[in-house]
């Protein structure tokens, strides 16, 4: 069977080019992602550089998973086209005596050969892409200076085998549906000359589509009741089950939905609409990459916007002071206490520590807030406090419950913590308070951990402006800033880090899906060469043919973008509802501009490629 599959590939190269290109791109991006992860893990660094590389590994890990997810759909779509263009050929095999099992094995063997070649080429290309990705991470400030791809050790013995094996697995599963469909072709199909889809929705397709739709709805229902550290990863990938469901159930509604974007007032528009309604399998498969691009990328960007808004709200709600003094701490404290109308003065600092999990198996960096225990509540709003905050002195910590839960720390327990100078201490949890998964925090006393930077927070609820002006006169060399203004750089830093990660993931996915859109669109319109030739024989001129194709490509792009946009907006609202359980005042932010931008990219790519594909016929 492999020999016959090899002969088929040699004689029908054009039918498999799309599948080969899709697999090469997927394998290359996966190789690049995994090689960057292994390179980050093989470099021995400490301090902030180590934390930066840990963050790189997390972001690129998401990227690798997203690439594998997208690859399955895109490879499946291209193999479906490859089988559809060879329907008569496969039906002739059935006519001359081939069994359904033999046809299925033939398609599987073809997929295996394409997978082998595509995975090999993709892995080699991925090493070059990984070098560029490492440089990009340094350029945008995500990775530390000097970080580069390590072309030895784990990269060669882990990244390449993982990417190669994943490429073969993706091909095998991606071609599974096409192989089963090919085995069900009847011999009489070889005599058909009509391209009208009759029974597209099988029982299995209905079941799987409704199953994933149910999974997505169930996630939305249970999401608000989950702990914050469990919510975040689910929220990030909330769109995936809805995208799968939309792709599987698309043939039910794409014909009528997509044809509504064509102009029924013109003959070419009416014909384009009829093509979309009658060829629902082709319509759904061609627009699937657009649905993936807008649904996945739009959801990532939308969820990121909501999380940024929740983070912004959390930070603003944490600080209770009216203004902040930057400068000599002792002088600032003395001057603030003597100013009229001042009711509370407290010092707030920050320090990077590493906390060890309760089981001792792993640790993580934590931004600790260095406080003056006696006055900290005049500067910070700490809610639902349990334990004894007055015991916060020496080797003791007051920790947010979300952070404590993720580390396995409990009130009254003693755990290991490494200070900025590298010294390890056993610290006791003397109190806990309510925080959230977006702003996990810990309080330590000034007499235990030296702060990297310290500011003085002043509360003057009766007349903040008068008190601020009085302090500013007493401290001409210091900077006296309203708390809201002082928070802006901190909020911007938090938000930009989150947005950078989401744009990196979305950009990676968008590049892949745009290339997939170009690939699938070219395959879809080139496979209709016979149909277009018949239209020319019936009197249609080249301009009318191009007009019809333009109508179809715009409708396919807009239809896929509408479905993807619904998913992006829906998951953003679901993320907002879930995050409001811990941050009630979080504003709703929808990725309207982002979805419009993604739509323009997808429609533009599809229209341009379809025009080129038809012009070359």
From TrEMBL:
Entry keyword set: Cell membrane, Membrane, Transmembrane, Transmembrane helix
Subcellular location as annotated: Cell membrane
One Pfam match: FtsX
Topology term for the membrane: Multi-pass membrane protein
Domain ABC3 transporter permease C-terminal: 62-185, 504-616
Chief location bin: membrane
GO cellular component terms, semicolon-separated: plasma membrane
Keyword S-adenosyl-L-methionine: no
Keyword Cell inner membrane attached: no
InterPro entries per UniProt: ABC3_permease_C, Membrane_comp_ABC_pdt
Highest taxon in the source lineage: Bacteria
Regions crossing the membrane: 20-40, 60-84, 111-142, 154-175, 206-226, 232-254, 290-310, 503-525, 554-579, 591-614
Listed name of the protein: Putative ABC transport system permease protein
Organism from which the protein derives: Tamaricihabitans halophyticus
């Amino acid at each position: 069977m492999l020999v016959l599959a090899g002969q088929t590939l040699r004689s029908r190269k054009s039918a498999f080019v799309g599948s080969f290109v899709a697999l090469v791109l997927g394998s290359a991006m996966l190789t690049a992602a995994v090689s960057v992860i292994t390179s980050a893990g093989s470099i021995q660094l400490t301090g902030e550089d180590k934390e930066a590389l840990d963050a790189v590994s997390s972001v690129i890990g998401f990227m690798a998973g997203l690439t594998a997810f997208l690859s399955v759909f895109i490879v499946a779509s291209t193999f479906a086209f490859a089988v559809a263009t060879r329907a008569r050929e496969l039906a002739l095999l059935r006519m001359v005596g081939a069994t359904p099992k033999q046809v299925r094995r033939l398609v599987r063997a073809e997929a295996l050969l394409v997978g082998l070649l595509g995975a090999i080429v993709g892995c080699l290309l991925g090493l070059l892409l990984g070098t560029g990705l490492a440089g990009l991470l340094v350029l945008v400030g995500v990775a530390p200076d000097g970080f580069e791809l390590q072309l030895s050790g784990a990269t060669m013995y882990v990244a390449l085998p993982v990417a190669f094996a994943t490429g073969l697995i993706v091909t095998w599963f991606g071609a599974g549906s096409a192989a089963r469909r090919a085995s069900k072709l009847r011999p009489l199909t070889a005599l058909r000359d009509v391209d009208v889809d009759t029974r597209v929705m099988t029982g299995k397709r209905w079941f799987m589509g409704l199953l994933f739709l149910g999974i997505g709805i169930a996630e939305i229902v249970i999401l608000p009741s989950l702990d914050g550290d469990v919510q975040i990863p689910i929220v990030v990938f909330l769109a995936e089950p809805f995208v799968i469901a939309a792709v599987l159930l698309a043939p039910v509604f794409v014909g009528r939905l997509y044809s509504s974007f064509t102009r029924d007032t013109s003959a070419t528009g009416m014909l384009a609409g009829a093509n979309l309604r009658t060829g629902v399998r082709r319509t759904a498969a061609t627009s699937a990459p657009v649905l993936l691009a807008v649904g996945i990328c739009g959801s990532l960007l939308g969820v990121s916007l909501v999380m940024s808004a929740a983070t912004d709200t959390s930070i603003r709600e944490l600080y209770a002071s009216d203004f902040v003094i930057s400068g000599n701490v002792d002088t600032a404290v003395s001057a603030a206490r003597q100013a009229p109308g001042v009711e509370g003065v407290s010092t707030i600092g920050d320090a990077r520590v590493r906390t060890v999990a309760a089981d001792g198996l792993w640790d993580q960096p934590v931004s600790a807030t260095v406080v003056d225990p006696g006055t900290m509540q005049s500067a910070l709003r700490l809610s639902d406090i349990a334990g004894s905050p007055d015991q916060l002195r020496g080797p003791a910590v007051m920790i947010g419950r979300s952070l404590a839960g993720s580390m396995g720390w409990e009130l009254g327990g003693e755990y290991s913590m490494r200070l900025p100078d590298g010294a390890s201490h056993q610290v006791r949890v003397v109190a806990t308070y309510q925080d959230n998964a977006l702003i996990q925090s810990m309080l330590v006393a000034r007499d235990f951990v030296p702060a990297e930077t310290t500011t003085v927070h002043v509360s003057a609820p009766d007349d903040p402006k008068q008190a601020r002006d009085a302090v500013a006169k007493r401290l001409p060399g210091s900077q006296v800033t309203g708390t809201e203004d002082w928070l802006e750089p901190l909020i911007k830093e938090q938000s930009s880090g989150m947005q950078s990660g989401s744009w990196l993931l979305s950009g990676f996915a968008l590049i892949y899906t745009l290339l997939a859109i170009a690939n699938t669109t070219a395959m879809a319109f080139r496979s209709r060469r016979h149909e277009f030739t018949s239209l020319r024989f019936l009197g249609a001129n080249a301009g009318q043919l191009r007009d019809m194709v333009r109508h179809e490509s715009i409708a396919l792009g807009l239809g896929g973008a509408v479905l993807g946009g619904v998913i992006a907006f829906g998951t953003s609202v679901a993320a907002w509802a879930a995050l409001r359980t811990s941050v009630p005042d979080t504003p709703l932010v929808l990725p309207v501009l982002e979805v419009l931008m993604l739509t323009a990219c997808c429609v533009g790519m599809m229209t341009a490629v379809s025009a080129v594909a038809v012009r070359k016929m």
